[in-house]
Design a protein that fits this description.
Layout (H helix, E strand, L loop, with lengths): L2 E3 L4 H13 L3 E4 L10 H4 L3 E3 L4 H14 L4 E7 L2 H16 L3 E8 L3 H14 L3 E5 L4 H10 L8 E4 L6 H4 L11 E5 L5 H10 L9 H18 L4 H12 L4 E3 L2 H9 L4 E3 L16 E9 L5 E10 L4
Parallel strand pairs: 1-2, 2-3, 4-5, 4-6, 6-7, 7-8, 9-10
Antiparallel strand pairs: 8-11, 11-12
Pfam families: ANF_receptor
Main location: membrane
GO cellular component, one term: membrane
Length: 311
């Protein structure tokens, strides 16, 4: 094995990174955002991703809350390496921009912890809540509603770990209407959706589809450029085939033809992520803003493509 496309969760990648690096295997995630994974002391130059780290999502999520009028927020985060790291980035960016954090609550995935955490938020009387977690957030939202500060009373912002139609299944109709959140990456095009559905007709969530596609193509192009299937050789070429300023190409066959002709290439695929650095992070990436509608389903409302901050 030379490369693995994954994992979806940062905590999973962090749990296996010692094993994969020791084996000389490239780990290329289409979805990890933990800032810890930017550290080459951990990743040994064998880890890459097509989404930006939480330094980017934290900045966008904080700016989104402030743009919607939030000045004094509460932040609730599941106790997890990804969620607490993102909460740190949101806190830093929100405060640097002049906002205040009324209370920061880390919670465990248990009903008792939801109840206690929501009580602390209610007591702090913020003008908005930034909730950072995964599917367990449904329990937190139910507790917010039970304590009288549900999304229709207290403005709620979410992150990529929760922002899906599945979160609202079973919640009262319209409860999530207007709730906004961020998902790193771009919305899958109709063409790519059709290709994904041809593989799995039961798909309903296309998040990270473009990023998964590009991670796969970049590994293949790096192997072609290296003329090797060894993990270390592939890793050495991933920054080269995604570098900005070379001959652009967007299709695998086109890129391979350029490589065989001796051209340095800049692969730009459906995710738009480019300039992957030696530490595995893209130099340029996209964040999409999504919003729940009256039917409790999400739709994209905006996107931000920008250089990825390093800290």
């Amino acid at each position: 094995m030379s490369a693995i496309i994954g994992a979806a969760q940062s905590a999973v990648s962090l749990s296996v990174i010692k094993t994969t690096t020791a084996a000389g295997v490239v780990l290329f995630s289409p979805a990890n955002t933990s800032s810890e994974l930017s550290d080459t002391a951990i990743t040994k130059g064998l880890y890459f991703r097509t989404v930006a780290p939480d330094t980017f999502q934290g900045a966008v999520l904080a700016a989104l809350a402030q743009a919607d009028g939030a000045k004094n927020v509460a932040i609730m985060a599941l106790t997890d390496v990804y969620t607490t790291g993102l909460a740190d980035d949101v806190t830093k960016n929100f405060e640097v921009a002049g906002g205040t954090v009324a209370v920061r609550v880390n919670y465990d995935p248990t009903p008792a912890s939801y109840t206690a955490g929501v009580a602390k938020v209610k007591a702090a009387d913020p003008d908005a809540l930034i909730l950072i977690g995964f599917s367990e957030s449904k329990g937190v939202i139910q507790q917010l509603q039970a304590q009288g500060i549900g999304p229709q009373k207290l403005t709620l912002f979410l992150c990529d770990g929760q922002m899906s139609n599945a979160l609202a299944v079973g919640l009262p109709s319209g409860l999530m209407n207007g709730v906004k959140g961020t998902i790193p990456g771009v919305q899958a095009s109709e063409k790519l959706r059709a290709q994904m559905l041809a593989t799995n007709p039961n798909l309903t969530d296309f998040a990270y589809g473009p990023e998964s596609y590009d991670a796969t193509v970049l590994v293949a192009l790096a192997a072609e450029a290296a003329q090797s299937t060894k993990g270390a050789d592939i890793a050495a070429q991933i920054p080269a085939v995604s570098a900005q300023g070379n001959e652009p190409c967007s299709k695998f066959a086109e890129c391979v033809a350029l490589l065989k002709a001796g051209q340095a290439i800049s692969y730009v695929g459906p995710s738009g992520a480019t300039g992957i650095k030696a530490n595995g992070d893209p130099s340029y990436a996209t964040m999409t803003i999504w919003q729940f509608g009256p039917d409790n389903t999400i739709a994209p409302i905006d996107s931000i493509a920008a250089d990825v901050p390093t800290s």
